[in-house]
Amino acid sequence: MDERNSVIIVDDDERLLEIFKTALSFKGYQCKTASSAESALELIKKTSFDIMLTDIRMPGTEGFELTRKAKKIRPDMAVIIMTAYAEEFSYDNAIKAGASDFIKKPFTLNELMVRIQYVKMQGEIRVMAITDALTGLFNRQGFFSIVEKLLQLCKRQKQGIFMLYTDVDSLKKINDTVGDKEGDMALIDIANIFRQNYRESDIIARIGGDEFVVIPVGTTEDSAKIATSRLQKSIEIHNAESNRNYKLSLSFGIAYYDYKNPCSIDELLVQGDKLMNEQKRRKQKS
User: Fold this and answer.
1) N or C: which end of the chain has fewer CB within 10 A?
2) CATH 3.30.70.270 residue window(s) in the chain
3) For residue 98, how far is the Cα from the chain centroid?
4) What is the C-alpha to C-alpha distance for residues 75 and 243, in angstroms, rounded to an integer?
5) In which region does residue 115 sit, left (phi positive, over 0), alpha (psi from -120 to 50) or beta (all else)?
6) Residue of 28, 62, 65, 51 lying closest to 101 (CA atoms)
């Protein structure tokens, strides 16, 4: 299913479900329906939907609670809440539950499409705000936003993780000798090498001009070392196959988040930066 145009519709009225599904399908959306919150959550666990359209009043779990649970499973999924009880509706409660917008029943197809386009635009703006324009990786803001929640989870689950902190050696020299455009290409090449070596679920970010971080890079020291060795090998292969007028090189440090002695994101970055600079100094002396 194309998640960029996929909708799950949740309502206990089977007749309305069929009407919504037919209308949205006609507009080019991939649609799934659920007549209860419980069946909706099962579908959401299996499929990444772009938007959830849900009624508030349903037997069992109601729309607000469904929204909270669904957003825990799919944080990036937009939610539009439907209600025939506008006078009882609390917009603040909807936002707190994680909804992006609401629509009052009855509504026209045109009104629904406007709401859907609105929440999709919101999502695109949000992605732009946390994405590095050059490399397509998370930027510093995106990194902090995601990792803050990750460290809280690690603390609750009593799990430590490793973070790779790295920068590109001699980027200034590349810019000065072959131009800023080639310097940008070096950063893009590094970003692509990271994508090839780490999982889609890993957090990869460009947090500064030539500074990158990856979390998690492993949950044990051995797995972290294996990951960095694989990364170094990929850089060597890239250099051997590339026709650019320079060789890529990285210096890196591996910082550790210890749930027994938790630290802030800034403290974790300082730890990684310190270890990375130690490696850089060793390379310069050799």
Assistant:
1) C
2) 140-285
3) 16
4) 41
5) alpha
6) 51
Distance CA 191, CA 4 (A): 24
| pLDDT band per the 50, 70, 90 thresholds, residue 88 | low
Sheet holding 211-215, edge to edge: 203-206, 211-215, 161-168, 250-257
Residue written as token pair 């409660």: 93
Residue 62: phi and psi, rounded to 5, are -90, 180
Q: Which two tokens stand for residue 199?
A: 């999982």
- Asked whether the CA dihedral 254, 259, 262, 265 is positive or negative, the reply is positive
Q: Could you tell me the two tokens for 209?
A: 């001009």
CA distance 34 to 13: 10
- Residue 11 · residue 82 · CB < 8 Å: yes
pLDDT per residue as tens digits for the range 172-202: 999 999 999 999 999 999 999 999 998 877 8
Sole residue written with tokens 């051995």: 222
Residue 59 preceded by cis peptide, ω within 30: no
Query: Which residues of the chain does CATH 3.40.50.2300 include?
Result: 3-129
Whether 100 and 80 have beta carbons less than 8 Å apart is answered as: yes
Q: How far apart are CA 123 and CA 127, in angstroms?
A: 6
Which has the higher per-residue pLDDT, 191 or 127? Answer: 191
Q: Are 268 and 275 in contact (CB under 8 A)?
A: no
pLDDT at residue 201 in the model: 79
DSSP secondary structure letter of residue 135: T
Q: Is 279 helix (H, G, I), strand (E, B) or coil?
A: helix
Q: Does domain 3-129 have CATH number 1.20.120.80?
A: no
